[in-house]
Design a protein that fits this description.
mainly alpha, 105 residues, 5 helices
Amino acid sequence: MKIPWRSFFGFSDEGAGETFAHAMGRARHLLEIQNYEDACRILKYAEKNKDAEGIYLYGWCCWRGTGVVEDSGKAVKLWKEAASMGYEPAIERCKAIKDFIETIK
């Protein structure tokens, strides 16, 4: 049985049966038009839905404090999780952070 992921919010462009994949498309659009709060309402469910891109994007929102409270520690945790799922942009971001840390040691 598939439970609608957005039933918590009471609204959906695709109706109560909207999939998380469809919602991710909307989240990407919301980020493009700089509606960070609404995008983050979707992206915060990326971990539960095992969506590496969503986890990575939510990490950027946490890093910048756009749509959510700024939290660099959470951002790095999210990027590491997305990297462990094989998401290339997250792998590159984690490598960049690691390289930076090495330069300041």
